[in-house]
Amino acid sequence: MSEVTANPLADLLICACSRAWDGDTEVLASGIGLIQRLGASMAMTKNPDLMMTDSEAFIVSEPVPVGARNGYKPKAETWMGFSRVFENLWSGARHALVGPSQIDQYGQTNISALGDYDKPKVQMLGVRGFPGNSISHANSFFVPSHSTRAFVAGEVDTVCSIGYNPARLPKGYSFDDIDIRLIVTNLCVMDFELETKKMRLVSLHPGVELEQVIENTGFELLIPDDVPVTAEPSAEELTILKKIDPNNLRLSAI
Fold first, then answer.
1. Rounded distance, CA 105 to CA 99, Å?
2. Beta carbons of 51 and 89 less than 8 angstroms apart
3. Helix, strand or coil, per DSSP, at residue 153
4. Which among 171, 219, 233, 251 has the fewest CB atoms less than 10 Å away?
């Protein structure tokens, strides 16, 4: 078997994920997972107002390459310990791109358990920080395998993060307090329509047919009359990818 030397889909997804932070000002960009982390790094190279940590305890002036650092020294600007991360989180000065196991029509997500809550078939991470994140700051999602197992009919098995479901909004909260920006999958890009708060198709990845997305989504999407094709990486973006992923970890990411 020949060695993998390119992964165009991974490059496309990283660049698509990076656009989640378009228009953000001085917020902490958190990408949880390799594709998400590289997306955040890509975004920071274009938007110097974004903040990123070195994944340890410092804010850096440029994204730290993933994998072995091979002598690279992070350009630390100031201390950013856990307590300061939470200060950003609770104040709304954070935008996280995470990878839930399930998403429903409301944008509610699940990373905790699959199956009946009292006797789950699969036990996963637990709710972690999802509840507080969902009501405190902007969130986007990355799903590497778009299917009805991920985009489920009805509600997710365990509601870990709040979405646009009026029945589950905490007391005193409204839809204006929920900010779900972008959903990137291996088939397409989606968001939530501003007025209706329904999940909407934004673009189809090159070679993907609309029917593939419809068949692999467990609920009805808002579909524009003309659905554009997701922009492929530019020459500049490919150059940036080589810098932020010098060990080519993305080649086996998808």
1. 16
2. no
3. coil
4. 171
Tens-place pLDDT, residues 27-43: 999 999 999 999 999 99
Cβ-contact 191, 183 below 8 angstroms: yes
User: Which residues, listed in sequence order, are joined to residue 143 by a DSSP beta bridge?
Assistant: 185
Q: How far is CA 86 from the centre of its chain?
A: 19
SS (H, E, C) 182-214: EEEECCEEEEECCCCCCEEEEEECCCCCHHHHH
Could you give the 3-state DSSP secondary structure of residue 176?
A: helix
Residues 194, 172: Cα–Cα separation, whole Å: 20
Opening angle at CA 96, ends 121 and 136, nearest 5: 95
What is the rounded (10 degree) CA torsion for 6, 8, 9, 13? Answer: 110
Burial-class residue 17 by CB neighbours within 10 Å (0-12, 13-18, 19+): buried
Residue 153 CA neighbour count, 13 Å, CB half: 4
Q: How far is 185 from 144, CA to CA, in rounded Å?
A: 5
The token duo for 231 is: 């922009």
Regarding pTM above 0.85, the answer is yes
Write the pLDDT tens digit of every residue in 55-79.
889 999 999 999 999 899 999 999 9
